Amino acid sequence: MSKSIWVIRILFLTLCTLGGYAISQVDPELIDSKLQGIGIGFGMGGLLIAIDEMLKGFSLRAFSAATFGLLLGTVVAWMIDTSQLFNYTAEDTRWIIRLALFLAFGYIGMILALRSNKEDFSLIIPFVRFSPKNHPDRFLILDTSAIIDGRIVDLIEANFIEGLLVIPRFVLRELHAIADSSDITRQSRGRHGLERLAQLQQNLKTEVKIHEGDIPSETKTDAKLLQLAKMLDAKLFTTDYNLGKLAELQSIPAVNVNELSKALRPVILPGDTLSVRLVREGKDRGQGVGYLNDGTMIVVNLAEHLIGRQVTAQVTNLVQTGAGIIVFCDLK
User: Fold this and answer.
1) Helix, strand, coil tally for the chain in percent (to 5)
2) Is 139-263 a CATH 3.40.50.1010 domain?
3) Residue range 92-129, pLDDT digits in tens
C-alpha cells in the first residue's frame, strides 16, 4: 500500500473524528457528550477505511458489473412482485416475501454479472461493445507455441505489433502442464514460455489480459482458440502451421511467426559481403561453416584454419536445397 493512500486515510479519519466532535457541540440533543461524538466520528471513519481495505481488489469494472447485475436483479424482482402472484398473501407476511425477492434476485444478479465477461454483456445489449477507449480495439490471441517461441516479445519491442494481447486461461493451463512435465525437453520449453510470458506482462508497450472464458462445446485447444478468435474478432498469433491453415480456412486472421520470420530474411545476392563466425568444418576440404541469425548456412572456402573466429566473406554462389538456401563465399 503506498504511503499517499495512508496519508489520505489518516486525514479522512481525523476529519470524521472532528466532524463527530462538531456535531456534539452543535446539536447536544443528538449527541450528548464530546467523547461520544469523537467516538462515533472515529468509529464511522474506521468502518469506511476497513470497507475500503476489504475492497482493494475490487476494480471499477467489477463495481460497474455488480451495479448492472443489481439493477437487473431488482427489475426481475419488481416484475415478480407486481405480477399479482402474492395478492392473496397476508399483509403481515407480504413484506417479508418482497424483501426476500429483492435480496435474492439482487444477489444473484450481482454474482452472475461478476462472473460474466464482456461477450456475455453483448448478448444482453446488442451492438454495444465494452472496450476501454484508451486501448486499441485490436485483440491479439497468443497460443502456446507462440508464447514458447518468444519472438513476439522482440516484435513488440521493435514496434511491429500493436494491440491488446489476450492469453486464454486454457492456454495458460496447457503451458503450466508443459512446464510441469516429467520430460526434460518439454519442461524446459514450458519454463521458457513462462519466462517469456512474464516479459510480456512487464512490457510497457502493450497490455496483456488473461481471458477467463472457456469454450465448453470444444475439447481441443486449437478448436477453442479458433472459436475464441471468432468471438473476439481477434487475430491469432502462432507458430503451428496446421493451426494457421485451419484459421485461414475459417477466414480467421492469423499470423504464423515462422512465416513472418522467413519474409523478413535479408536478401543475399552474389557479390554481397557478410560477416560470420565459423563454427565447424565444411563437407569439402578447407571449408569453414557458419550460420546467420536466421539459420542460413554460410560455407566459406579456404577458411578451415579460421574456425572459431569472425570472418568477412564475399558471396559467390547460392544453392537452393530442401532445407533452405546454402550460401557459398570466398574470404575477403
Assistant:
1) 50, 20, 30
2) yes
3) 677 788 888 888 888 888 888 777 655 555 444 444 44
